[in-house]
Write a structure and sequence with these properties.
single chain; seven-stranded antiparallel β-sheet; four-stranded mixed β-sheet; binds zinc ion
């Protein structure tokens, strides 16, 4: 190849020295050699590929007038002929990096962007739940308990009010809740070493519902208890709801979703290179979580199995569910449900899809998709 004319500022003198530059192929990329202007082909100085700060490539139509090449400890070169420089580079076997090709070729950029988007989507769809399930195993119970404490305090300051149920009634339901827990056999446990601290809390201030918090707190509203007795249903209906909520706790559904949000944020932060988006998350996040369909099926399957162990019927809970749906449909025909009613957590009613179909399955004592 023909050497290219260049000016060399060697870093010791302010005056440029006219030289010729030759590029030669090498295993790690081209090496650079300075030749005297008049002399033959013996280089005065040679630089390996790593000793040269190779200038960024430019898109075809936007060549700079002068190219500056920095040489480690040996000043800089200025080259007035960008086109010749680029040809020499290619001839010496320089392969533009992916980043360089992205800068100069739109199709490459779009291709990389597409791959990145597909990768992120796949991570969100498959990677996140998988990672969350693994990480959840490591989440200590104490973390769940403190999260729940904060979340419940927040709810109590918000729309939840103390229960007006007579203490004897609360005690009676707690007794049945404890008896139900006593029937939980090891094979019903999703995480063998996980021992949540179960407790049943009563609140008013919210429609007929129940929800579970991580670590074992199950909240049931006065309205749900009242609805059951208004519909002439036995306590088995309420116990069935509690069994479903215990299922959410045992499967650690809320924790899994909180962890998933965290994994997703960290993953996105890493993928997009923005560390500031790796934000802390806590009890406020809980209120924004909607349960997944799969989690509901798991909780229903769990409820059916546990009620079976306790030799209690699942029909009453199905009737309660249907009663609730009818009452709500009549009540809210003209007005949209409020945020508080749409609510959060593993609310028993609102976030469950296909309620009628679900009630029929519960009534029959088998839910589709339950492990045999
Ligand atoms: Zn649920």
């Amino acid at each position: 190849m023909t050497p290219i004319r260049a000016r060399w500022f060697n870093g010791q003198s302010s005056r440029a020295q006219d030289v010729r530059v030759a590029l030669q192929p090498g295993p790690k990329g081209p090496s650079l050699h300075l030749l005297a202007l008049d002399g033959g082909s013996v280089p005065t100085r040679s630089f390996s590929h790593a000793e040269v700060e190779w200038p960024p490539v430019w898109s075809r139509n936007r060549a700079p007038a002068v190219i500056t090449v920095a040489l480690t400890d040996a000043g800089t070169l200025e080259i007035d002929h960008p086109k010749e420089w680029q040809e020499a580079l290619l001839e010496a076997g320089a392969r533009p990096s992916l980043a360089q090709r992205m800068q100069t070729h739109w199709p490459v950029f779009l291709g990389v962007l597409l791959v990145a988007v597909i990768g992120l989507a796949a991570f969100y769809r498959y990677g996140t739940p998988w990672a969350a399930a693994q990480i959840t195993r490591q989440v200590p119970l104490s973390w769940e308990l403190s999260l729940t404490e904060r979340a419940l305090a927040q709810l109590d300051q918000g729309y939840l009010k103390p229960s007006h149920l007579p203490p004897e009634r609360q005690a009676e339901l707690r007794r049945q809740f404890d008896a139900l827990l006593g029937r939980m056999s090891p094979e019903l446990k999703r995480y063998p070493s996980y021992a949540p601290r179960f407790s049943l809390a009563f609140r008013s201030g919210m429609g007929a519902n129940a929800f579970a918090l991580p670590g074992g707190t199950v909240v049931m509203t006065d309205a749900l208890v009242e609805m059951a007795s208004k519909n002439g249903l036995s306590d088995d209906a309420l116990i069935g709801v509690l069994a479903h909520e215990i299922g959410h706790v045992v499967h650690r559904h809320t924790t899994r979703m909180v962890v998933e949000q965290g994994v997703l944020q960290v993953g996105l932060g890493l993928a997009l290179g923005d560390v500031s988006s790796i934000v802390s998350f806590g009890s406020t996040l809980l209120t924004g979580l909607a349960y997944r369909r799969q989690h509901e099926t798991e909780a229903d399957c769990f409820a059916i199995a546990l009620m079976g162990k306790a030799q209690l019927p699942t029909g009453p809970m199905a009737d309660l569910l249907l009663g609730l749906v009818s009452a709500r449909e009549g009540q809210h025909k003209d007005q949209p449900t409020t945020k508080a009613e749409r609510g959060s957590f593993s609310e028993w009613l609102s976030s469950h899809p296909d309620t009628r179909q679900r009630a029929e399955q519960l009534k029959a004592g088998l839910a589709v998709g339950c492990p045999a």
